[in-house]
Write a structure and sequence with these properties.
This protein folds into two domains: 47 residues; 159 residues, Sandwich (Immunoglobulin-like), CATH 2.60.40. The protein is globular, with a radius of gyration of 23 Å. With 211 residues, it is an alpha+beta fold. Strands 1, 2, 4, 5, 7 and 9 form a six-stranded antiparallel beta sheet that branches. Strands 3-11-10-6-8 form a five-stranded mixed beta sheet, with helices on one face. It contains one helix and eleven strands. A hairpin with a 2-residue loop joins strand 10 and strand 11. The termini are far apart.
Length: 211
């Protein structure tokens, strides 16, 4: 009887372990599938052309207008009380702006000059319900059409690649947030194109002053 009891216990433990291992493999498989899907989606975004307007010399920069109500005011979002630009699911803020107006305009005079450009802190957020890749690119709209460069860490690139994670049930209301830097070559009128698989949005800002 005792031998039968321990045989049953051993079989039960083996069954539970098999379930754990199988679940782990399924989870890894799902993660790999999601990663592959997002990689393919990001490659498709990279092939999407920039569709930015041209601003003639002497023409007023048609800057975008922001809102204080687009983004929740929470501690984990830097500059959450700033004006935010965009219609969603992705929004940007101009942290160096004096926030005196909702117009997307800021001065370069007090911004650090680094890597042959002005390194402007630029926070980005996406809505809690959005999960997937984000591609951000931009350039000067007048003159040389010089590209903006971005950095989410040490690496500089012409395109900022972000990935909004899927939220668990107990974290469903948390927005995604990225503190990045945007390298602005000089004063001028600039356009930023924000691409997700289902949306494309253009935000226009003006940098004034500087060297």
């Amino acid at each position: 009887m005792k031998r039968l009891y321990w045989t049953f216990v051993a079989m039960l433990v083996a069954f539970v372990c098999a379930l754990v291992i199988f679940g782990s493999r399924v989870g890894r498989g799902n993660d790999a599938a999601c990663s592959m899907r997002d990689s393919v989606a990001l490659d498709q975004l990279k092939r999407r052309p920039l569709n930015l307007p041209t601003v003639s010399s002497g023409e007023r920069c048609p800057v975008s207008h922001g809102s204080h109500d687009s983004v929740p005011r929470v501690d984990y979002i830097f500059c959450s009380g700033c004006f935010w630009y965009g219609k969603g699911p992705v929004f940007m803020a101009l942290a160096w702006s004096d926030q005196s107006t909702d117009e997307a305009r800021f001065r370069l005079d007090k911004i650090p000059y680094d890597e042959h450009a002005y390194r402007a802190k630029t926070p980005w957020v996406s809505k809690a319900e959005y999960a997937g890749p984000i591609l951000i690119r931009g350039q000067l709209l007048n003159g040389s059409r010089e590209k903006l460069r971005f950095s989410g860490g040490e690496k500089l690139s012409d395109g900022l690649e972000l990935q909004a994670p899927a939220r668990e049930r107990d974290d469903a209301s948390r927005w995604s947030f990225w503190p990045t830097s945007m390298f602005v070559p000089s004063a001028g009128c600039y356009g930023v194109q924000i691409d997700t698989p289902d949306t494309t949005e253009v935000i226009i800002f003006e940098a004034i002053g500087g060297r």
